[in-house]
Amino acid sequence: MRPPEVLLDNSDDVYEFYREHRQNRLQAMGAYALLGRRYRPRVGYAAGAREAIHELIRSRTPLLIAVNHLSQLDPYTLAAAAWRSELRPIIGRTRVLAKDELFEQIKLRRRIDMMGGIPVFRGSDHGLRAVNAAGQRMMDICAERLAFGDSLAIFPEGTCNDVDPAQVQAVGTGIGHIAFRTAKLGARPALVSLGLSYGPRADPAVAPTKEEVKSASFHFGVPHTDLPTRPAEIARLVRADLQQALDGAVAAY
Predict the structure, then answer these.
(1) How many whole angstroms separate alpha carbon 65 and alpha carbon 57?
(2) According to the 3-state scheme, what is the secondary structure of 149-166?
(3) What is the per-residue pLDDT across 35-87, written as a single tens digit (0 to 9) for each?
(4) Rounded CA separation 157/68 (Å)
(5) What is the set of domains in the chain, with CATH numbers?
(6) What is the DSSP letter of 148?
(7) Where residue 146 falls among pLDDT bands split at 50, 70, 90?
(8) CA distance 232 to 253
(9) Residue 159, by phi and psi: left (phi above 0), alpha (psi -120 to 50) or beta?
(10) Alpha helix segments (H runs only) across 73-127
């Protein structure tokens, strides 16, 4: 199927395409390895987290990976951390939610597609009413991908944190709805919180440069395999759990 243009008016075709889209795993592995060498993140784990993640991947449990959002460069440092962590075996089988504007340029879109991107039409960009139907479809597609055995990485704050990089900002219920819909399809994803820190910042509103995001600190929390049943409860768990992971990342920076 030929990739459709990523436009809100074309969202049905867009999500039908990403329902079936498969990454080139060899290309993805090569790209993630390159980013691992370029950004050199440091990766830490809460007690027991490394072993638990390894076992979940070995048992082919889909992972719902929540990461705090600090910069437009986060997808690249996250990819680098995946290469240097227990997530390496699921590179090429992990989808990443990314804002729709990243799919506008052909060259960048090829890169985002290769890295597992699924476009998101955000209410802050298009208006909440305008994106409602597309958002529902996006969550359905994410749930289907998880039920098929893929994993999914999400920045659940929805936008970059320019307030306090050491505090997780508000988490919407989208991640809860995705987990809830996945469970309705008969699959039970495990929540893995991954805290990210680029170190203390004099002004959080000023985005870090490519040099400043090198050697970032990532910290994995212990996975949750028994999630609440309601989307709002899942979202509350994500925020609390992600804060613990972020605390670990900040402490280890």
Answers:
(1) 12
(2) CCEEEECCCCCCCCCCCC
(3) 999 999 999 999 999 999 999 999 999 999 999 999 999 999 999 999 999 99
(4) 7
(5) 8-199+209-252 (3.40.1130.10)
(6) T
(7) very high
(8) 31
(9) beta
(10) 74-83, 106-114, 123-126
